Amino acid sequence: MKERVIYKERKNTNCEKWDGLLEEYGRRDLLPVWVADMDFEAPSCVQVALQKYIDFNVYGYYHVPDSFYDSIISWEKNYQGYRVKKEWIRFIPGVVPAIYWLIQMWTQKEESVLIMPPVYYPFFNSIKETGRQLVECPLLKEDEYYKMDLELFENKILKENVKVFILCSPHNPVGRVWTKKELQAVLDICKKNEVYVIADEIHQDIVMSGYKKVSAATCGNYDEYLITLTSASKSFNIAGFQCAYAIIPNDKIREDYDQLAKKLHFTEGNNFSYIATQAVYEHGRPWLEAVCNIVESNYFYLKNELKKVMPKVKIAPLEGTYLAWLDMSDYVDPKRMKETILDKCHLAVDFGELFGGENYKSHIRLNLATSRENIEEVVKRLQLITN
Ligand SMILES: Cc1ncc(COP(=O)(O)O)c(C=O)c1O
């Protein structure tokens, strides 16, 4: 059964995307297509599960039931092909905080951590703010299709003595769903050079038709080097609950992680987050499939319409995520990108330089998880650049 996806007007609900405009952009007169959450109601199973809990109206300490872990185990097995054991799963309050912890667990100050720009900007911050050395191995671009530069990757690992690689899979913002072959190639290099891998797979469920997301951990025997971080938060628009999880199959790494968690005195999440996550993993699949269809159709609408009115805008093929990555260099001087998009188009986007600096100044990232009307409006507003 397909579940209906309901668009929601979110203005004046204290949501970052719509109500955080003034703080982020200094103005309110923008159509927001920036923050990576959806303008859709969560699937109805979330409301049902939470309502049951709210009706009981006692919010004491929670005993996390086996059914919570079972829901993750089934989801990972059915949709990621990853056979996870309960004892490998650790609650985390978000993927980003866990990245910070793992960097500190696996490296000393000044040691090198590698990422592949353009990439989700907190990766940069996690390395800089923990006092580690940032090593960049930019993705290669052929037409609009991005690939990993494996030769440069191994060279940088050796030259900069890299200890940790943060993999983004699927890759935000370029929308690649890495193939098993690509993942094996990069993970083999890590294994050979004893580089630990933080596999950020938070976008694992938003995959377009014809593509298959493969979990890095299932690509071979990489357990001694790899931790997977993921969540139901992006897939089901429940990021506000702050519930994610780490999958740590290796005993020794798990022991190290547990020691660290003990020192931070951090082990538990909140009752609502467990209930919501379990509900979507048990009942949310039809809703998710409907959302993926909407994202795909919004993407093709954007691409086809822009082709008519701004044929030189280059759009990366969308294989996964609900984020479109556009190169506007044929229309806008990169130096004037911000003022053009804000003053002329009145759009709140994520500007390309956030994802890797100067090289991406001609790019913008747009969020497709919204109504068709909003995407139509985005096209109209981008077209103003040509006037
Ligand atoms: C690649 C990636 N990792 C992590 C996050 C956020 O993770 P969390 O909210 O669980 O910290 C995002 C959000 O957009 C993301 O795109």
Structural features, described:
The chain has 387 residues and is of the alpha/beta class. The chain folds into two domains: 16-43 and 286-386, Aspartate Aminotransferase, domain 1, CATH 3.90.1150; 47-283, 3-Layer(aba) Sandwich (Aspartate Aminotransferase, domain 2), CATH 3.40.640. 41% of the residues lie in helices and 15% in strands. A hairpin with a 2-residue loop joins strand 5 and strand 6. It is globular. The termini are far apart. It binds pyridoxal-5'-phosphate (PLP). The site of pyridoxal-5'-phosphate has 13 residues, from helix 5.
Task: Provide a compact summary of the structure.
The protein is α/β, with parallel strands linked by helices.
Question: Which strand order does the major sheet show?
Answer: 2-10-9-8-7-3-4
Uncertain parts: none
Helix content: 40-55%
| Ligands and ions found | pyridoxal-5'-phosphate
Bulk shape: globular
Domains (count): 2
Secondary-structure element sequence? HHEHHEHEHEEEHEHEEHEHHHEEHEEEH
What CATH first level of the largest domain would be assigned? Alpha Beta
Organism: Dorea formicigenerans
GO molecular function: cysteine-S-conjugate beta-lyase activity; pyridoxal phosphate binding; transaminase activity
Cofactor: pyridoxal 5'-phosphate
Family: Belongs to the class-II pyridoxal-phosphate-dependent aminotransferase family. MalY/PatB cystathionine beta-lyase subfamily.
